[in-house]
Amino acid sequence: MAFRRRFWLPFGIATLLLFCYYSWLTGDAYQWAGAGSLSPLTHRPHVDPKAFDDEDYFWRKLPTHYPVKDMGTFPNGKPLTLPKIQVVFGEESRGDKAARERMLDAVRKEFLHSWHYYKTKAFMSDELAPISGKSKDTFGGWGATLVDSLDTLWIMNLKEEFEEGVAAVVNIDFENSSLENVNVFETAIRYLGGFLSAYDLSGDQRLLRKAREVGDMLYKAFDTPNRMPITRWDFDYAKQGGQQEAPGMSLLAEVGSLCMEFTRLSMITGNPKWFDATDRVREVFEEQQMKTQLPGMWPFTLNPRDKIFTADNTFGLGALADSTYEYLPKMYALTGGLLPSYKKMYEESMKTALKHLLFRPMVPDSANILISGTVHTEQADGKTNFNFDYQGQHLVCFAGGMLAIGGKLFEKSEHLDAARKLTDGCIWTYKTMPLGIMPETFFMIPCDPSKECHWDETQWKQAVLKQAGERDLTNMDKADDIIAKSKLPKGFTEITEPDYLLRPEAIESVFIMYRTTGRRELLETAEAMFNAIIKYTETRYGNAALSNVNVDDNPPKKDSMESFWLGETLKYFFLIFSDQDVISLDEWVFNTEAHPFRRLIR
Ligand code: DMJ
User: Fold this and answer.
1) Domain membership flag for residue 416
2) Residue 592 is assigned to a structural domain of this protein
3) Is the alpha carbon torsion for 176, 562, 203, 44 positive or negative?
4) Is the pTM of this model over 0.85?
């Protein structure tokens, strides 16, 4: 016995040491580097501080005018066990699997078509012009399409192209910009988000270094007296060390949706400064939330200079606002539930949105769908009146996915119900349009919520007349004339912007609904959407935005392919046909540009 014990002791110690060394090497250990608390992150590569901690980097060395005095830190404690977001998928027949794999090939092929021409004709520029084959710099000239595409390349298992991409991004120079005025939000979601996600997936330290460079650059936009960010940022002035101030007017989405990227960067590097920067913004959002003209929600424009968000009276979930709301449940998921303020803000905002913004449109097949509109408040005689725009937007299609995630995380069945109906509203719109593609913006007629919702042709025609500004709502000939001239499908009262800009929001929500419900018919929906989009957008050099989807054939194209086509739209199309454990929503959370970040999980 004594011999055995003596023999096993050194062996046991050696094994333990080996295990510790391995854990240190792979980073497969507890980590919220530097911020005080230890949290388990699986499959985290080891972070070598020397690889990214360059004290001499230009944006880091620039003197700070308004230094932070009381740097905030990430909360201590273990991440919570949060409810599962994804459903457990059942067995799949061989035929179904084969059909899915065919779609994966089709999506990958389409990606490679655009990628190939981006590489040969526009590499390192922000965008490829898909008709002329020229290049464009629209987002600082730092290779937006390249950075936005890196994680898609990884996910599609195009590792050679990924390697080539990583080797190229190393040379991006964030000390100079092709734009005088840099959009901080777009830079954060596309570049910082792109680098962080590609790093989270691959563990390549070169990507972390680039993320830190962008992070240090953007951090300078927070060097204002009250530490609120400048959203449209004078790059050269900042570079020359100018004294800055937050603007008196900024767009909601551009102030409210920097937190995921900044927080993830702090989580990985262990430097709390980025977390601290957006946590100060969060404090103001929380403080102002119930004081606005539609308590619970924030208006489209804010005043960061004075930290007052009460002046504007227009509210919605779409353009100008969207990702602020999207990031509330996602921040909670990202940080393992350690920031309850985001849960609270999400719950308050959705209580208001569900009550005041969603409407059921009157449509010929009486489909039970929802659309999210826009509301203008008006204060009169101590009362708030609401003026509603029954407007639908492609951009607002993200909301189904957001409510599905929030509904699962916070166990709210009414959110799951709204998520389904909102996503079905987008699917309905795709199906109803002549090319099978949803337009950018349109108007519809609401059902009266106090009555059963049935199609009424006369009521629709009256709504068309009203939308056109006609006074005589009985003139049915005039209504027929407008309907014929504008080619209005039944249910729509106007198609205000008939473009399709290669946007992802509809397939994003269809993907999230599929992962959260397992409804197989969503795969058919995705296939139909994909086929329609490819049929009409494909060009010799890539895929082009369409300027009118309300035609029977040959939609006119624009010489534009935004980076989100490869970064978002095709990624979501690929993921819906992938196995459910490829970027599981229980391990990853997407930023608003579809870049998956690793969640802090127990
Ligand atoms: C993307 O850049 C992001 O999703 C953003 O939040 C708004 N929409 C575009 C794509 O449509």
Assistant:
1) yes
2) yes
3) positive
4) yes
